[in-house]
Each structure stands twice: as structure tokens, then as C-alpha cells.
Design brief:
globular; mainly beta; 7-stranded mixed β-sheet; 4-stranded antiparallel β-sheet; 118 residues
Amino acid sequence: QVQLVESGGGLVQPGGSLRLSCAASGRIFSPHVMGWYRQAPGKQRELVAVISSTDSTSYANSVKGRFTIARDNAQSTVYLQMNNLKPEDTAVYYCNFKRVGTGGYDYWGQGTQVTVSS
């Protein structure tokens, strides 16, 4: 199994910043992809940003230039730096770990609320 512990959500004014963290433990074997998805009320869960075990990154168009995903050297913690936040960024943010390849597996964190409001 993989355990994912998220932190860093909260309430911020438009234009502000937040940093989300996701600490992974357990079967965090490579190759894998870790990252963040979000789900706003009444909407489907969508990809925000992901980073692979080879440090390849991918972002949703809506967050490019504002959000940055990074990981620590041990590859066990992933960070999402969110700048210039907008009200439409309000959502529950979920951390995801995906072991890719034959016999792959997929785990989700419990989610952390991000609210952007004045």
C-alpha cells in the first residue's frame, strides 16, 4: 500500500499564494507519477499538475505559469506551489500516486480544501 498525507490547504485572498505538500510512504517504487488533482463542487475531478519519477512535469492549461510542482530528493514528498490564486482555483485538492507499468497501482490522499475568496 501507499499512504499519502496532504497538508497546506486553507483560505486565501485572490492573488495570494499557498503551498500544498503530499508526503508519501509505503510502496513508492519507480517508475511512478505523483501529483495533484482537484474537484470543485458540481464538477469532475481534474488534473492540476503531475511529476514523474524522472522529473517530467505536466500542468493543466489553467494553472500554467502560476503553479509549480516539485519533489524532494528522496522522491517521497511532492509540493505544489500555487501563486496568483483565483476564485476558480477553489476546490478540494487531492494527492495521487500512480505506479506505472505492469502490475501498477493507484492511491489517493484524503484531500485538502483550498478556498480563494475575498
